[in-house]
Amino acid sequence: MTLVDSNILLDVITIGQRWAAWSEHQLERAALNGPLMINDVIYAEVSARYGTFETLDALLEENGILLTPMPRAALFLAGKTFIRYRRAGGLRTGVLPDFFIGAHAAVERIPLLTRDTHRYRTYFPTVILIAPDKNEA
Q1: Which pLDDT belongs to residue 17?
Q2: Residue 54 falls within a domain, yes or no?
Q3: Total domain count for the chain?
Q4: Are strands 112-113 and 65-67 parallel, antiparallel or unpaired?
Q5: pLDDT class of 137 with cuts at 50, 70, 90
Q6: Is 136 inside a domain boundary?
Q7: Which of 10, 21, 78, 85 is most open to solvent, judged by the fewest CB atoms within 10 Å of its CB?
Q8: Domain containing residue 96: CATH number
Q9: How far apart are CA 49 and CA 56, in angstroms?
Q10: Residue 102 falls inside a structural domain
C-alpha cells in the first residue's frame, strides 16, 4: 500500500506539468506493490481541480486509488507535530495538510509518494518517501 500525495496526482491530471511523466511512472510502480490510497486531506486538495465530486471519484476509481480515512492516532500525531514545528519558528499558514499526510503515513507505516519531501523528512523521519532524487529535481 502507498499513500499518494496530492502533488503527484495533480502532476498527472494537469497536462503539461514538468513532473507528469515521472509521477505517472511512479504511480504505476507503486501500484505493482499494492493498493494506492489517498486520505481526506489529499482528496480535498485535488478536488479544487474538479467541478463535482462524482468526477473526481470516477477518476480515483478508474485508477484504482482508494480513499481511506485517517486514523485518530494520525490526527493526534499531526497536531502534536505541528505544534513542534510552530515552536521551532515554522510558518503558520499553508502547511498543516502536510502534517496530516505525513502523520497518516507514519502511523500506518506505509510509504508516501511525493515530490515535497522537506517537512516529511524533518518531522516524519520514519516514513519511507518515494520521491525524485537530487539529480531529477
Answers
A1: 79
A2: yes
A3: 1
A4: unpaired
A5: low
A6: no
A7: 21
A8: 3.40.50.1010
A9: 9
A10: yes
